[in-house]
Structure to design on (127 residues):
């Protein structure tokens, strides 16, 4: 059993920053990918960012590229999402996801590629 616990969400004004963290416990993620997804009210869950085990590969949805940065600390089994220049349209519940597998590049973008999910953390950006 794997537990993923997100933290760092909150309320911020447009243009502000937040840093989300996701701590994993219960199983080693050696070799595995991790990602962030989000779901806004009334919308489907969407991919935000993902990172390979070595952190040599990162992936972003176009709307957050150059504003968000994903990183990971494998010694701590933790993945981060630094969010800068936040916009009201970034408002959503953000979910951390993980898989023990390495992924072919196009699979990073799909939620079905990940076997473990956190409970989510709310991010609200006011205008």
């Amino acid at each position: 059993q794997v537990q993923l616990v997100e933290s760092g969400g909150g309320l911020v004004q447009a243009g502000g920053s937040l840093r989300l963290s996701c701590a994993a416990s219960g199983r080693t993620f050696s070799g595995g990918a991790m990602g962030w997804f989000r779901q806004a009210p009334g919308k489907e869950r969407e991919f935000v960012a993902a990172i390979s085990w070595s952190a040599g590969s990162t992936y972003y949805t176009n709307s957050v590229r150059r504003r968000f940065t994903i990183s990971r600390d494998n010694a701590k089994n933790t993945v981060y999402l630094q969010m800068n220049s936040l916009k009201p349209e970034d408002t959503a519940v953000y979910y951390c996801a993980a898989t023990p597998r390495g992924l072919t590049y196009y699979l990073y973008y799909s939620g079905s590629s990940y076997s473990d999910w956190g409970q989510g953390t709310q991010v609200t950006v006011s205008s």
